[in-house]
Queue: 2 jobs
Job 1
Amino acid sequence: MTDTTDISAPWDKDNQAWWDWYVGLAENEVKNDALANAEPLPNIAIPSLDEVMAELAEPYLLANDQITFFRENGFVKIRDVFSPGAVLKLRGELIRLLKQEFEVDPDESAHDRFLSLEMIWPDNPLIRAYVLSPRLGQISADLLGVPAVRLYHDNVLAKQPGCGRTPWHFDDHHFPLDTNDVVTAWAPAQPIPIKMGPLAFAYPLDVHQLVDDVVFEKSGTGYDRGITKLFSQHNVSVNETPFELGEVSFHHNLSFHTASGNCTNRSRIALANTYFRDGARVMDAPTMVSGDWQKFMPNVKPGDIAASPMNPVCWPINDEQLIESSDTREQG
Ligand SMILES: O=C(O)CCC(=O)C(=O)O
């Protein structure tokens, strides 16, 4: 192990600093092309919080071939998980929160940064409706084939106009959980054409074995380049397709994924919620790649069951949660 490959120290900064570091590990071609104008967003009625909660409490029944596809390939893209109005309501709130935190307009191209926010759901009833939604919880549990899932964290990810690639990686490297029953629901807050850099997945799931020996480097772009090279040598297939309004992708923690840069004039905003099998533990030795994970599981120590009050069971929901959610609806 050398200085550049030793990742054993815990991350000692915040999660925005983590993302600033992490996107710096991506190889980018120098491009001087002008940013493309994103299509106008549809002018449609925006639902109330009540309506969003009612929509997301409805189950979404997966077809067997969607489950089979996920288990073979490590990802699946599902249309109409959210209605167009629910997506645009989400976008409005995420833009408001990003402006408040970073004091910039996320759509402003002068910044070209990858902005992130997390742990928004505890204090924000609208975001909570998406993050703890029975719909996302149920789809996640069904894809993993487990009886119950908990939330690991919510993650608002805004790739500003002009921001470059997300490096190749798999989330098993990131989440300090001792299980592979982990799935991230990556929910775009607007349509994502190719030029905006949709999340893209290498498949099938076991392609991670081809790159097991590529050593992670904590500076420079060597790891990202190493993965690109091996995937290309092995002719690995990559799904890089646009996202329609309301489409959500789900990826397993062993799924290798990346995203191209955002070459449009609109911020590519997504809400990425990660769910894991109830009963899983925190691994014994989380690394710096796990970022500030204790923020997501307060007072949970390495080796403990990952079940802090910040990791509620999102599926199945019990009667108490139903009552709590209708209380929130009354207040909101
Ligand atoms: O939004 C991105 O570009 C990366 C997101 C990602 O890697 C994830 O949510 O697992």
Job 2
Amino acid sequence: MIIDAHNHPDWHKHDFDAFIKNMDTYHIDKTWLLSWETPWGDYSPDSVYALSGPILGGENSVPIPFSRCLEYKQRAPERFILGYGPNPHRPDAIDALRSAVDLYDVRVCGEIKYRMLYDDPDAVDLFRFCGEAHLPVTLHFDYPEATRSPKNYPRRNWWYGGSIDHLDNLLSLCKDTAILGHAPGFWAHISGDDQAATIGYPSGPVIPGGMVEQLLTKHKNLYCDISAGSGCRALSRDLDYTYRLICRFPDRFLYARDYFDNVHQELIEKLSLPHDVLELLMHGNAERLTQR
Ligand SMILES: [Zn+2]
């Protein structure tokens, strides 16, 4: 059994049929299908090629509307676990998420990828509700300096979420909520160096004791979404370190892609993890976090 714990409908030119075919090619049984509902202007025009939201919603569009996740789920209920990540600043965010759980069997709050600090009181309020409702929360982090745009408009950079210190604070404030770290602003902290704030995809050997390891040690509610180039590159920097880290926290890592290639499975094969650890990584942790 394999579960991809992070992907999106219509993403990178994959429609429903291409998506299912791609899952079959890589032996993926189920996918967490996440929305991304940040307001127009808060996502890069350079990413529009990979999205259907701007076509469907016009000027009021969000990049990945929940309605597209739902459409996929209704066409192949056994292949998808639904995620919905409303904008925490919406006054009705909690009610909307509660309705999505009741009406559509949403099991994940995500993707949360907004230009706000994730320990903002509105966000904490939403994420505490997620703890009560047993919904894991998938958070996307990017730093301003590491995402600086050559243009000033519509944005000078594409930061989301705040710094690793905001994640640390949030984990303390929402102890009953399972929180998944994801994206460059999280994974650059695999190493105990100072590259994360300025370089999206740092390279070179890992200095043990980075913030990812520190926060996993400190907070039992932190989980690691290994998806995208950020997760794959970070975990490829030092395979011996990655092996030790995953074996030390076997119930905290989730296989995930955020794309349609197979680089994460190739990386995992190279690690030769013990069988029980591998089972947790490939599906066990994802199942435990979303079971009802
Ligand atoms: Zn993301």
